[in-house]
Write a structure and sequence with these properties.
Length: 189
């Protein structure tokens, strides 16, 4: 931390040293949908279905993460066919829809065995996410989260929900494992 309280970037990295240390142990990234994978807007069509917009850079980040052996999944209070479609498209390991009690979904993950709380990261943007954010090894949030969530988070992305904030967490997790540059090299051939 600096005198102003802002986190200090680790040497040779754009990420804070404390976030990198926490990120190094993460094996699963869980994400809220509305306000994290989207900008929070819920658009209704005349037919009564919902439309959500996802960011393409988040998509590649989540694919790279899985390539690196880090699983990902979503936990959302709402239910939407579009979320299912996006999760399937990205091949994410977990999809919990209709979980207003997000802790219940988290406990299902823990009950599945194999993972400790310090091996799980969660990214959320609102009060509903606080119970999870205060339990996981790496609590992440978006630039436009509510103030209480920003205060509870270990890592605050510079970008907002649905604007590439998830990609920043993916990059952080890859960098912590020393895999970000290696994966990047595959695109520079
Ligand atoms: Mg949300």
């Amino acid at each position: 931390m600096t005198a102003t309280g802002a986190p200090t970037a680790a040497a040779g990295s754009r990420f804070p040293a404390e976030s990198l240390a926490r990120a190094r142990r993460i094996k699963l990234l869980l994400l809220d949908v509305d306000g994290v994978l989207t900008d929070g807007a819920i658009v209704y069509t005349g037919e009564g279905t919902e439309i959500k917009a996802f960011h393409i850079q988040d998509g590649l980040g989540l694919k790279l993460l899985q390539k690196a052996g880090i699983e990902a999944g979503v936990i959302t209070a709402r239910e939407s066919a579009m979320v299912r479609r996006r999760v399937e498209e990205l091949g994410l390991a977990h999809l919990f829809q209709g979980f207003a009690d997000k802790l219940a979904a988290y406990e299902k993950v823990l009950a599945g065995g194999g993972l400790q709380p310090e091996e799980i990261a969660y990214m959320g943007d609102d009060w509903l996410d606080l119970p999870l954010l205060t339990r996981v090894g790496l609590a992440a949030t978006v630039a436009d989260a509510v103030p209480e969530v920003k205060e509870a988070a270990h890592f605050v992305a510079t970008r907002g929900g649905g604007r590439g904030a998830v990609r920043e967490v993916c990059d952080l997790l890859l960098e912590a494992r020393g895999l970000r540059l290696e994966l990047l090299r595959n695109f520079l051939k």
